[in-house]
Write a structure and sequence with these properties.
By secondary structure, this protein is mainly alpha-helical. The chain has 2 domains: 1-190, Growth Hormone, Chain: A; 252-511, MFS general substrate transporter like domains (Growth Hormone, Chain: A, Up-down Bundle), CATH 1.20.1250. Helix content is 84%, strand content 0%. It has helices spanning 2-27, 29-36, 40-68, 70-90, 94-122, 128-145, 147-155, 161-180, 196-215, 225-247, 253-258, 261-291, 296-303, 306-323, 328-347, 355-381, 389-432, 434-450, 457-510. Helix 15 (328-347) runs antiparallel to helix 16. The longest helix is centred in the C-terminal third of the chain and has 54 residues, at 457-510. It is globular, with a radius of gyration of 25 Å. 41% of the residues are buried.
């Protein structure tokens, strides 16, 4: 029982800060920028650095953990995270904040993988789904459903640095527990790994891809000469990595893990889950904030009921994993389908829709996310053998993170393109129905007079401009949601085909 108490303390007091960090750049961006004297553009660069460091951590953590063991790596990472957050509290310069956020992103990945290894090492197989799902509550479900509202409420009364203080407190508790009651330090047997040059190429490639996905989407990658050159450079780096790996006579442990067809299906499953969840999250938030003009607090309140259905979806996934494991594969398509249905419902909504009308689509989306995320995570984390767990978990989170980055970048770019096309479409409609516009202007003037204002061209133009902009954004996001449905319908069949191929291969091996 005592070991479970220690595991719960590690999960809660390391993963709650993990979830907060993922939301701070979205919901506390303005306050963070003001405190360090950065513009919104400079803060977006810091966010890119933070994300690139997280991916670098996912790449390097297996090597570090194989050298030092799970508990030693986790304790060092928590200690480093504690010091970094103290530094973030006192830092007021852009350069120092960038460095601290980079270190923070790196150690967060070490914490993520190490705690998952502790869960797999501590719990019997029957209890694993419960603890894996409990960890996902703090790293994924609450950040998407509850943290936006919670952070907006806190920022109404306190500085954003209150979250840093809370993280320092959380890491301090986790560190004290790890030092006083350390879990057994699981040591992995030495396995063949890539040389330092391959790691350097890999880190350069993933950092460049992260920058392109998070920054290049605003410049249309292939239209801007600088970003076109960076795309070519990233392709060259990818080719170089593949060539160096192919020349190696002995397979590394990561290559051995990824050489199985079933493993590749799980990795694609992770990619699809990251893509679907992040894309729907970006589009849903954009619809609430840009089309309906909700502020962060109202957006958080609107999304809050979905937390309940996320937890229900999580509970269903845990129950199926424990009692009906044969049905686990069927939960993933149901989760994707529910996300698609919610996206279709939102895509047909006008700009004057009330929050109550959004409740059902958001509840469906929450239930779908709970089913998809939790069932995929449980299936993947319980799939690997003991010696494959370290590299397998790292690859799982790497694929899921990259899938989320691609989804966010693609639909951010798609929104930019669609907004330009929507403006042209609205302008053509205005020209075609000039009599209707004239009638609308007359109605506006009467409304101004009724409310005690003298009508003027500037006042009427300003009001009509707001109406047109709102319609443009609504049309843009509706089209983007439809494009999301099309993208999932293209990607999902690949997963189904892969699962059937893996099942046939398994049957052939048994016979």
């Amino acid at each position: 029982m005592f070991r479970y108490v220690g595991l719960i303390i590690c999960i809660v007091f390391t993963f709650v800060p993990f979830g907060l960090n993922s939301e701070m750049f979205s919901d506390a961006a303005s306050e963070m920028a003001v405190s360090i004297g950065a513009s919104a553009d400079e803060l977006s660069v810091i966010k890119i650095i933070f994300m690139a460091a997280q991916i670098a951590g996912l790449v390097l953590t297996p090597r570090l953990v194989r050298m030092k063991g799970v508990t030693v790596s986790l304790t060092a990472a928590v200690c480093c995270a504690l010091l970094v957050n103290i530094g973030l509290y006192v830092s007021h310069t852009i350069i120092m904040s960038s460095m601290l956020w980079a270190i923070n992103g790196f150690v967060l990945s070490i914490i993520l993988i190490s705690v998952n290894l502790l869960i797999l090492d501590t719990c019997p197989r029957k209890q694993l789904p419960i603890f894996i799902a409990g960890a996902l509550v703090f790293t994924t479900l609450l950040p998407m459903g509850m943290y936006s509202w919670l952070m907006a409420e806190i920022l109404e009364h306190f500085s954003w640095q209150m979250f840093i203080v809370f993280q320092v407190w959380s890491y301090a508790i986790a560190l004290i527990w790890l030092v006083v009651y350390p879990p057994s330090n699981r040591i992995f047997v030495a396995k063949p790994k890539s040389n330092h040059f391959i790691y350097l190429l890999s880190l350069s490639f993933f950092s460049l891809v992260t920058y392109l996905l998070m920054r290049g989407s605003y410049y249309n990658w292939l239209d801007n000469p600088i970003y076109l050159d960076l795309v070519i450079l990233s392709a060259v780096l990818a080719l170089a990595i593949v060539l160096f790996i192919m020349q190696r006579k002995q397979k590394t442990i990561t290559q051995q893990v990824l050489s199985k067809l079933n493993t590749n299906v799980y990795m694609y499953n992770a990619f699809l889950a990251g893509f679907a969840v992040m894309s729907s999250n970006v589009l849903c938030d954009s619809f609430l904030e840009k089309a309906l003009h909700y502020n962060v607090l109202v957006t958080g309140e609107t999304k809050l009921p979905a937390v309940i259905t996320m937890l229900l979806g999580m509970a269903v996934s845990v129950w199926v994993s424990n009692h009906k494991p044969a049905l686990s594969d069927k939960i993933v398509p149901i989760g994707v389908l529910l996300i698609l249905i919610s996206s279709i419902k939102i895509s047909f909504m006008p700009s004057y829709v009330s929050p109550e009308q959004l409740t059902i689509p958001l509840l469906l989306r929450g239930f779908g996310i709970g089913l998809l995320n939790v069932s995929v995570s449980i299936a993947v984390l319980m799939y690997f053998t003991r010696e494959e767990q370290l590299e397998g978990i790292s690859c799982f989170y790497l694929f899921r993170t990259v899938g989320g980055l691609i989804g966010g970048a693609f639909f951010s770019h798609f929104i930019h393109i669609e907004s330009a096309q929507a403006i042209n479409q609205v302008n053509s409609n205005v020209t075609a129905f000039s009599n209707t516009v004239t009638h609308y202007q007359a109605t506006l003037n009467n409304a101004f007079l009724t409310n005690g204002h003298l009508p003027s061209q500037a006042m009427g133009s300003n009001y009509m401009s707001g109406v047109v902009q709102q319609q443009v954004m609504t049309l843009t996001l509706n089209n983007s949601l439809i494009m999301f449905v099309i993208a999932i319908c293209i990607l999902a069949p690949i997963l189904i085909v892969g699962k059937k191929m893996a099942a046939k291969q398994k049957e052939a091996a048994e016979h």
